[in-house]
């Protein structure tokens, strides 16, 4: 009797969670295909530096194995210290924890209901890596199985599998399963959950930027939160992670992430896909009155790498339940979009990859009940993460959403 070839696991999107899941499948020899709407990995700006939690590092290590994880670990930056140091951007001096969020009583009440932010994750260090570098590392070995310029807009179940449907109406080969890892605008998530998975626009906006490490020498090593309460339109903050060893090398760059209360940062024509000079000019204008020790971060920024971003969040009460489909599920931002507060989103996404990859490895591929098991476990940790992320964002920069808020 002839052996029937195992059909591939289909993955929509080539972001962090999708690529780490692919690495898990690659390691266990389970066939897969990835469909990505962009034309290449360098098609768009790759975003800011990610801070990796203990849970995130554990998830990545479980997927990569000891040898590959050591290579990944070596690419990560390690910063000393265990918490944020806050700086008043006008005076350039450190400010107290109670003063840094504008209204001490309100901030204190919000924060008292949330777990403390723990930055150090291994060896007493704060571990970070740029999103672009992390994505390139996870991509290694997966290139032959990626179909670029393939935008998945829906799926069709068959009698023995599932097909991805693309924007031009064509369909993929039949797969055993389809995994939606295609971010906050995921059409897979909308179809699967019948609209129960929602991503809300918090109204807050931000800008990512980067500059040569020499521009950061006025700050020195540490994780810094720069807070500007003087803007008449609302509070502005910048977070940056400055690791030692590179501050004298102008060929190395550090990144920073700027965010603000709703209404402060406005992209031209509300187009948040713009990158480069429009974003750079707004960042420079907003920081024009900042202290000289901070100005180089913006005056010396690499303008071409500046990018706007929209701060979104899934339902703050947690990940909703939907009718399980055995052959389709979602991971990462498609399942649980989070604000940047607390640096929780990417760490939760890689936990999805590790969990789903482990379940597939144990089953040798698709089996009935696998997606139900994954979703049940995912909702526990991801639901808590969404609530924490939203609570921190509400306290830090005044977002406020409910079930009636605008969705993306």
Automatic annotation (TrEMBL):
Keywords: FAD, Flavoprotein, Monooxygenase, Oxidoreductase. One of its GO terms (molecular function) is FAD binding. Residues 98-119 are annotated as: Disordered. Its cofactor is FAD. Residues 146-387 form the FAD-binding domain. Residues 100-109 have a biased composition (Basic and acidic residues). PANTHER family: FAD-BINDING DOMAIN-CONTAINING PROTEIN, MONOOXYGENASE, FAD-BINDING. This is FAD-binding domain-containing protein. It comes from Alectoria fallacina.
């Amino acid at each position: 009797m002839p052996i029937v070839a195992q059909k591939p696991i289909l993955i929509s999107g080539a972001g962090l969670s999708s690529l780490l899941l692919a690495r898990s499948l690659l390691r266990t020899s389970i066939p897969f295909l990835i469909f990505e709407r962009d034309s290449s990995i360098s098609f768009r700006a790759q975003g800011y530096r990610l801070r990796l939690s203990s849970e995130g590092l554990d998830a990545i290590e479980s997927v990569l194995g000891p040898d590959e994880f050591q290579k990944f670990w070596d690419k990560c930056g390690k910063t000393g210290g265990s918490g944020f140091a806050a700086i008043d951007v006008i005076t350039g001096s450190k400010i107290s924890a109670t003063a840094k969020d504008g209204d001490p009583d309100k901030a204190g009440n919000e924060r008292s209901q949330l777990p403390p932010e723990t930055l150090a994750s291994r060896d007493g260090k704060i571990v970070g890596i740029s999103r672009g570098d992390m994505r390139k590392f996870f991509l290694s070995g997966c290139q032959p199985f990626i179909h670029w310029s393939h935008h998945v807009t829906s799926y069709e179940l068959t009698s023995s599998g599932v097909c991805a449907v693309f924007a031009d109406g064509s369909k993929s080969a039949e797969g055993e399963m389809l995994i939606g890892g295609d971010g906050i605008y995921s059409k897979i998530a909308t179809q699967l959950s019948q609209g129960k998975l929602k991503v809300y626009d918090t109204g807050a906006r931000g800008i990512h930027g980067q500059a040569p490490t020499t521009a950061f020498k006025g700050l020195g090593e540490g994780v810094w939160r720069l807070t500007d309460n003087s803007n008449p339109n609302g509070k502005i903050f910048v977070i940056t992670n400055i690791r030692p060893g590179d501050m004298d090398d102008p060929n190395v760059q550090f990144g920073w992430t700027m965010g603000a209360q709703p209404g402060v940062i406005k992209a031209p024509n509300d187009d948040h896909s713009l990158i480069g000079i429009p974003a750079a000019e707004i960042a420079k204008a907003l920081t024009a009155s900042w202290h000289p020790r901070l100005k180089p971060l913006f005056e010396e920024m690499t303008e071409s790498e500046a990018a706007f971003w929209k701060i979104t969040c899934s339902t703050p009460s947690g990940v909703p339940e939907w009718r399980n489909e055995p052959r389709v599920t979602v991971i990462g931002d498609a399942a649980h979009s989070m604000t940047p507060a607390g640096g929780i989103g990417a760490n939760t996404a890689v936990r999805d990859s590790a969990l789903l990859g482990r379940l597939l490895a144990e089953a040798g591929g698709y089996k009935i009940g696998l997606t139900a098991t994954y979703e049940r476990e995912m909702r526990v940790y991801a639901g808590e993460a969404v609530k924490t992320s939203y609570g921190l964002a509400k306290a830090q920069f005044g977002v406020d959403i409910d079930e009636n808020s605008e969705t993306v």
